[in-house]
Amino acid sequence: MAVEPDLLAGTITLTNGSVDFTGTGTSFQLSGVRRGDEFLQIEGQTQWQAMVDTITSNTAGTLVRPWGGATGTYEYRLRYQPDGSRVTAQARNLIELLGNGRLLAIAGAPEPAGVIEILPGGAAQLVPKSSLVSGADYDVQVANPAARTPYDAQLEGFSVLISNMGDGRAAITSRVTATAGVWSDPAYVTGPEGAPSTVPGVVWRGAYNPATTYAADDGVLYDGSSWRAKITTLGNAPPALPIVENTQWQLLARHGLDGVVQVPGLQAQGRLTLTAGVATPTSDVAGATSVYYVPSGGVYVPIYNGAVFDALSISNGLSLALDSNAGHPNYHAAANNYDLFVIDDGGTLRLASGPAWVQGAVAGSSILRGTGAGSTELEVFLGYPVNKNAMTVRFGSAVGDTVVVAARKATYVGSFRATADGQATDSKAKRLLFNAFNATVRPMKISDPVASWTYNTAAYRQANANANMKLQLLLGLNGIAIEAEYSIVVNNPTANSYAILAIGLDSTTTPSSDCYGGTTFLGIPTRDVGTKYNGFPGLGFHEIIPLENSGATGTTTFYSTGNGYNVGLYGQFLG
């Protein structure tokens, strides 16, 4: 399994001398933090490492040892322990548990054929296999009492197994004195032979067929249960349960409950996609009218049944036809975020969308889910992201394709943002389909197709004042890092001139604080310049926007892809 990237989301609060810690803006459980993971870097402290002991919620946990640094709230870097290290530690623990002399005793014992080693009290002993598989010890076996006569002069303790004492029973007798021919009373090892059964057996005839004549004591399989015919019958099927007997049939074995897989810790094994059957498309998809949920490393999704999470199979996958009809409840309206869930609708597994993020007793927005009744509010329950409140979900485009799902009965698998009524897009410029599980690197890219443009103002603006020059993305969970880089070729022959590039987060005039680089002095031949962004945009819909500033000296010319340069805005994230 691949090593997870470091976790940096939010801050942690530590108290000197205490093992307890709390988080702000964190999602420890949802991010899979476990015992053995380490806070490698705690900003401003000389104690750099602190190992996690327990995680009690998305915002709280305990350390293995009390915190030795100063009390305070810090930024941090958490390193996940590789799975290989966890397995090695568990194996070492097992060896230590067994290391009480028993393993050494086994290793030091000889191994002749026909014996096995046992360890009473930690000391190895060799026991013949025959003494373990035999029900009783004896020296010789004979057919009947008369056949025992040749052994009448054997020493005391000599025993004989007699297969038939005359009544069908077997017994063991032993020499009890030195006098020849004197044997102990028989110790019977089997009972007398029983009388032949008078109960007729069932004649198995397979699956019930209405065209077959069945005789009394014929057995059939019908609707998953086994039945015995009481009389000769034709065309009379066994009754429906709970009736267990009528004039023609008697129930032998009732149909059991259909089983489900329960795997603690199992996460959803599918991926959301806009291409049927393709878990991770490499081509842009715009204006899709259906969302698909397809297997990606497995076919199971954990769904709460009111007591435990059942692992239910999506088989070849699920799909959701998007609804563009404004007259339908919970239709998929343009410029709105929607969460996607897998639900068990009376035995039918469905991919369904919750209410728009803006809905709820407390209204939401494009960067925050609404909360309370009528919202798509999430919670982590027993380690799984689920709906916190009962909600109405939509599983198709017809007016009646809705159902009310009880709290915690819908498992969250991702989100999408409608680019038009009833439409979704997943492209390099618009990553608006988010996967909560089985994340892969999703590349982003956009460039201006014109050859060049000019700018001579010492203020930031969107590159080329082009409103389309931006990357759009939707993040359904917190704590996801985004990397982006903007490069362009510039020229300004004026002495002491300069140009500045930057990247704005949801802004066309203000550089992000997570942006760096991008300044170049000109007055010399044409050169390329670049700037980078590396940060955590946070929950919801965001735009990554390239910015430019020309200074106030001369006029700067910016050269783009239309001039043959391989430039533009590039990025990537896990989603």
Q: Span between N and C termini?
A: 17 Å
Mean pLDDT level: 86
Number of strands: 47
General form: elongated
Strand content: 35-45%
As a percent range, the share of helical residues equals: under 10%
- Detail the poorly predicted runs: none
Query: Which class best fits the helix and strand makeup?
Result: mainly beta
Please report the number of helical segments: 3
Largest sheet: 7 strands, antiparallel
Q: State Rg.
A: 38 Å
- Main sheet strand line-up: 6-1-2-5-4-3-7
Could you characterize the architecture of this molecule?
This protein has 575 residues and is mainly beta. The chain has three helices and 47 strands. The strands form twelve sheets. Strands 6-1-2-5-4-3-7 form a seven-stranded antiparallel β-sheet, with no helix packed on it. Strands 36, 37, 40, 42, 44, 46 and 47 form a seven-stranded antiparallel β-sheet that branches. Strands 21, 26, 27, 32, 33 and 35 form a six-stranded antiparallel β-sheet that branches. The chain is elongated. The model has no long low-confidence stretch (mean pLDDT 86).
